[in-house]
Design goal:
single chain, about 325 residues, Beta Polymerase, domain 2, Methane Monooxygenase Hydroxylase, Chain G, domain 1, 2 domains, CorA_TM1_TM2, zinc, cobalt ion transmembrane transporter activity, cell membrane
Amino acid sequence: MDFAAEHEDSKQHGLAEALLLDGQGSARRVSREEIDRLQLQPAETLWLHWDRTHPDAQAWLRDHSGLSEFACNLLLEEGTRPRVVQPQSQQLLLFLRGVNLNPGAEPEDMISLRIFAEPNRVISLRMRHLQARSELSAELAAGKGPTSAQGLVLRLADLMTDKVEPLVADLSDLVDSEDEQIEQDERYVPNHNKMVSAKRRSASLRRFLAPQRDIFFEMSKEKLGWFVGDQAKDWNELGNSLTRHLEELELIRERVGLVLESEHQRMAGRMNRVMYLFAIVTGFFLPLSFFTGLLGINVGGIPGSEYPHGFVVVCLLMLGFGLFQWWLFRRLRLMV
């Protein structure tokens, strides 16, 4: 089901996807009317993907899903962060975040995916379209999908994690480009807005990916035999993958700070040189300004006022004094 079709279905009754996994890697779609009367076989798994904000989805979850009020409240709450909860011995609640790849959206504005899982049923809820869900549906349609509830949840987490890598790579390339141009051209001014944006985006990603990494490691140690089992190493690998991304995001943040600090230092150095030059010019002309001001007060008795060559003499004296200042500044190493 493509994004437009999913959007249309979710608008009508809140059910974006309903698939019955056959335990062989394939699945068939079931209608809204079939859901409540399905008799699941031991190898089959029912996957229901709902629009969390739709009234029909909320009503079905509370009245027909069979979930406890505690589980329903957690799945429908407004604000969530990545975490894992076990309401009962054979049930699991998993809250994950995925990169927002919808048109016109900011990728770091991550989409929340709430998952309820038990041995033969998975219920997932989202508010916005999630590309990982579409890719998983395509794999099931091609007969190459997961075969169980735990495999379905693991594959969803895997696809969501894969979407992080290109985003982190783009941020790293942006910082690399600015860093290289600074090294090649001392006069290059880095794009301050891009650098601040990269730092903000990396911080936004870290906010949700750090606890999600901890969840994956926790899942690898979970004692739910029906859920984790032989897939513990896969959950551990997902945790390691997110760890690499988080380390790269931390490095991006530090490098952005170094780029901005380097630019601030260069600006401060240029400003110091300009101010030093102004100080030299001011110090050079201050005594001359004093003499010209003194000779221009227009009162009687100024020496040389009656002498025909007085102006030339004063100019020569000023020039000589200026040369003396220049020699003195050089000797005191005030001028390079």
